[in-house]
Amino acid sequence: MSGASDMSQVRDLTKRSVYFLTSTALGSSPANRNPYGHGNAVSDFLSNVSRFKIIESTLREGEQFANAFFDTQKKIEIARALDEFGVDYIELTNPCASEQSRLDCEAICKLGLKAKILTHIRCHMDDARIAVATGVDGVDVMIGTSSLMRQHSHGKDIEYIKKTAIEVINFVKSQGIEVRFSTEDSFRSDLVDLLSIYSAVDQVGVNRVGVADTIGCASPRQVYELIRVLRGVVSCDIETHFHDDAGCAIANAYCALEAGATHIDTSVLGIGERNGITPLGGLMARMVATHPEYVKSKYRLEKIKDLEDLVAEAVQINIPFNNYITGFCAFTHKAGIHAKAILNDPSTYEIINPADFGMTRYVHFASRLTGWNAIRSRAQQLNISMTDKQYKECTHKIKALADIRPIAIDDADSIIRAYYRNIQSGENNPLMDLTAEEAAQFAMKEKEPGGLTSA
């Protein structure tokens, strides 16, 4: 085959690939060109990325977090905060776990919350009877189906699991409340076993089937493939539960929705057994970047900071610096080229608008990485107006000081003010009080080239 023919085929393939990408992933409607919405999902009639529901499990999975101890009043406070945020369901610890768990379950059921109240139980009739008696809106039934779980946890075979699941589901349905049946350790279970069980419970009218990545081993591709197959087997809703041991919980949740899942389990700050599960705030970050209209119309995003502060204090942890949305670095911009673009158009370096969550961005200007656009913006905040050349010279002095020691905002502000006073007076007074050694180093740095034209 000739080189010209090869190049012709490459060009044809490229054109077809570009057409596919632009007609599916990017969309053709101007409405899809929201600067805060470049992550628009591939169009797919099975996808539920714009119509999902949240089952919030801080008061069930979250109780399994190493530091967690929620007394009744704290559980009520968290439940009300979750309800104000707008979660669809609140899942509570199995009332069979302890007498206090049962009493707490009853207390929360009596609050009159908008969210439906669920409790999570073993696939056993004794658990089901106690759960129903608490007044919950639904019961989440669970049993391990992998060979490891069957051998080392409950010792039951697939036929026993199927028979017991149907018995429990029929009982819960007879009480007029919702019921979900979930397999534990789904991704290490035999696919034929899974589909056989799911098909059987779907036929008796279960509201949802659950897929649980109990040990956090699944990858997004595995999730997509399993949910896609399951979507073709059952007609009921599909709930998913992803642990974050390997760092894929949010990505797995998103892929599950793309494949046809309808419900995602979350917890505040992701707390739970070991490294926890899909974090509520992290899921909101992912989903608002994809379908902001749906997320902002349904959930009170501005409540996420107070909700996370409440839970963090209750379990005695600090919110990580890089936490989704609420970490103190989440909307902080430091490098000069970033700061310039952010000041011109925030969407250049932000896929999420902090204002949607009641947060604000911060341009970090007190460092050697700062640029003159950031210093100009800060000077204008201080009601100081100079020429572009003067802003650049002032920036060079700030960068010179930052090269010899860490500087704070007050240091940068002092230099801006002192530099401006020198311009006004025509004098050349020292910009800051420095030690003799610092003054000598600063003088040397001022003479070095560079920095005057940085962004």
TrEMBL record:
Write out the pathway annotation from the protein's UniProt entry.
Answer: Amino-acid biosynthesis; L-lysine biosynthesis via AAA pathway; L-alpha-aminoadipate from 2-oxoglutarate: step 1/5
PROSITE patterns annotated for this entry? AIPM_HOMOCIT_SYNTH_1, AIPM_HOMOCIT_SYNTH_2, PYR_CT
Catalytic activity, as annotated? acetyl-CoA + 2-oxoglutarate + H2O = (2R)-homocitrate + CoA + H(+)
- Write down the InterPro entries for this protein, in alphabetical order: 2-IPM_HCS-like, AIPM/Hcit_synth_CS, Aldolase_TIM, DRE_TIM_HCS_fun_bact, Homocitrate_synth, LeuA/HCS_post-cat, PYR_CT
A GO biological process this protein is involved in? lysine biosynthetic process via aminoadipic acid
Example GO CC term: the record gives: mitochondrion
Give the EC number(s) under which this enzyme is classified: 2.3.3.14
Recorded GO molecular functions are: homocitrate synthase activity; metal ion binding
Family matches, as CDD domains:
DRE_TIM_HCS (cd07948)
As cofactor, the record names: Mg(2+); Mn(2+)
Kindly give the Pfam families that the UniProt entry links to this protein.
HCS_D2, HMGL-like
Q: Domain Pyruvate carboxyltransferase: where?
A: 52-305
Q: Keywords in UniProt for this one? A: Amino-acid biosynthesis, Lysine biosynthesis, Magnesium, Manganese, Metal-binding, Transferase
**Family to which this protein belongs:** Belongs to the alpha-IPM synthase/homocitrate synthase family. Homocitrate synthase LYS20/LYS21 subfamily.
What PANTHER family is this protein classified in?
A: HOMOCITRATE SYNTHASE, CYTOSOLIC ISOZYME-RELATED, HOMOCITRATE SYNTHASE-RELATED
Its name, as the record gives it, is homocitrate synthase
Starting at the broadest rank, the lineage of the source organism is:
Eukaryota, Fungi, Dikarya, Ascomycota, Pezizomycotina
